[in-house]
Automatic annotation (TrEMBL):
Its biological purpose: Catalyzes the reversible conversion of ribose-5-phosphate to ribulose 5-phosphate.
Protein name: Ribose-5-phosphate isomerase A
Family: Belongs to the ribose 5-phosphate isomerase family.
Gene for this chain: rpiA
GO molecular function: ribose-5-phosphate isomerase activity
Amino acid sequence: MSVKRDGSDVGKEVVGERVVELVESGMVVGFGTGSTVGVFLRELAGRDVDVVGVCTSFDTELLARRLGFDVRSLSSVGSVDLAVDGADQVDFDGNLIKGGGAAHFREKVVASFSDRFVCIVDDTKVDSELDLPVPIEVAPFALENVLGEIGCLGGEGVLRSCGEKDGPLVTDNGNFVVDTDFGRIQKPERLSKEISCITGVVEHGLFPGMADSVLVGSSDGVRELREIKGNEER
């Protein structure tokens, strides 16, 4: 019996397959987190390329090792040639909200130390403006204080719970995640800086202007949303 796939599944598959074309043997590749990255990893595993993988979560590391990749720590490789990751939402300027998988701290670190960061999404993730809640990773000791500071910025924060056990979700780094609704985010870069200035915030899921390329998959194929750095240099 055939299984009918929705448009987002098709989009994930085509964009996950397309981004493999950017990978060359000898590269150090940052492996992001999420279902679209999973498609990318499975496709890459079937290609004749020899790469080193730097993973952004325990979940990704388990998958990468099962697929036979040479997985190493960021500190052991120094820098990354190409980082590939998904997003929860992308605006028309290529700004991202990430952190649905609570891996945004490591994702941002790997992206920051990469020569090129390519974001891959299906077309349901693209909107004119960012408006999803922003995941904020918080040191447990500072939780109540951070919630107060978030409120001063106009955000409404909710501590993320863990679906598989009682209590709050704990990240791979031992911290909590506060999903914070700021409404429509018209100035992502400014909000990013304001959140980062709060003592007790480990990292947050706003990625303003960080992606060098955003590839968008749909039933019509793959298009590039914006070649961000190239446009800025022209």
